[in-house]
Amino acid sequence: MQSSRQKNGAIKIVTPEDRSRVIAILTTAFTMCPLLRWLYPEPERYLRHFGGFLDYYAGDPYTDRSGAYFEREDRGALLWLTDKAHRDDARMMSFLLGSVPENRRTETERLFEELGKYHPKKPHWYFTMLGIDPMHQRSGWGGLLYQYGLAILDEAKGLAFTEATSASSARLYERLGWRIVGEVQLGSSPPVFPMLRHPS
User: Which domain holds residue 102?
Assistant: First the structure.
């Protein structure tokens, strides 16, 4: 983990004071995410609901100190839930069904129910969001930020789960030790790839 800090000099664990910066980074980063833009296809709907989606999907990394971001230039952010944290999936689903277009509610509910079947039954870490500002994408920052988070995971010797929302992000995760365990695609939704990473 120290080498990552030395190389970029600016990765910082998130705190409550960083909340608005991290939300801004991730809102910008996910404008082209196949899953997020399927959920919120119109720009106005996306901007209105993304912050709420983040709250329900990613929990509270700011008080849990379960996230990191590039403090310099706000290049990107990574959020996770530790094996001690638990997301309220019922509240998340209620939010989703009230915010996605009406004609996507049934598919949205079925999609997330199917994804839930891939979550490990035993305690695990859940890497929820990795986003890089489009101005800095394809420059290696995503891998560097993920290596920082995975160093924390490996120190804890934890089992981890994530969902890649594109084939390209799945390939990045595979290079970092993740394994695809399925592919979920329902109706008009894009494919989503559940992935596991076992302790090294």
Answer: 2-197
